[in-house]
Amino acid sequence: SWSIFEDRILYQLLVFLQPPSRHSFRLELYGGTRLPERCSNIRVVLECTCLKQMGNIPCFVHPSKNNEKTQHSPLLQTLCTGSYLDVEEIACWVQNLVQTAWEHLPQWQHWQLTVLPSSHSCRVLLTGPSNMQLCAVLVFAVEQGSP
């Protein structure tokens, strides 16, 4: 959605997170009675790939005899607390990604990017010529019923 406030345009974008291969997201309900309101109830499950044709990609769940070392999931190590998605880690990661990507866009040299503090979304403010401002809020979601 978008709206206009005086000299500022506000864009709100819903960003659906998709699990990488060999992972799935599982929504865990509070006592099975209502949907949770926060990302902290989305468990990341490591999928077994032993019987799938995945080439030389090792299975997270069952280490092979050739590779006795347990494989670690980069997703669990960077964007999770324990086995659950951590919305604050996701927000921080996306904010860093946006900032890094911005530095590689020379066509935007006349615009200034400011990452606004937020622990549950990614908020950026773009200030352009004539002090025009665009504010974008990226809100993270997981589609219910997705693999």
From TrEMBL:
It comes from the Eukaryota. This is IPIL1 protein.
